[in-house]
Amino acid sequence: MAAAAHPLTCVGCNTTFNLQMAYNQHMRWKCQLRFMCTVCTNEYGTRAGRTHHMSTSHPCNYPCEFGGGCRATLPSAEALRNHTRTVHYYACETCCEYFSTRDGVRRHVNTIHKRVKHFCHVGSCEALFNSTAAHNKHERDEHDYP
Prior knowledge:
By secondary structure, this protein is an alpha+beta fold. The chain is 40% helix and 18% strand. The protein has two domains: 35-88, 2-Layer Sandwich (Double Stranded RNA Binding Domain), CATH 3.30.160; 90-143, Double Stranded RNA Binding Domain, CATH 3.30.160. It has helices spanning 20-31, 47-57, 77-88, 102-113, 132-143, and strands spanning 3-9, 16-19, 35-36, 43-44, 62-63, 73-74, 90-91, 98-99, 118-119, 128-129. The protein starts with a strand and ends with a helix. 1% of the residues are buried.
């Protein structure tokens, strides 16, 4: 191994190196750590290093409790939140509010963004509602409709 023409100094920790290879390894493993564990504060120079750490040091201890038979377990609370939002929830494309069903998004869009109105047509009643559910409840409660 040939020595570097001038000693190499790490700007992160001021360690000096005579060999280019030693400097490169130091920069890769010690001072330019880019892959952080999402559970603890450990950092790794490679994605494979972090993946190995996560699989051996942190058992999957955040189970998904969403119905429908999902058996996923996640390594952190943040990963569980992301899993739930992306896998099990549906987002309104207008305001990004999350719902557990596509029908929930449809009702939200019609009620909040499209402002669809539902009128009561029983007798001379002129009640106005923002949702079908509110309209149906009104007819059941006020007009004894089934």
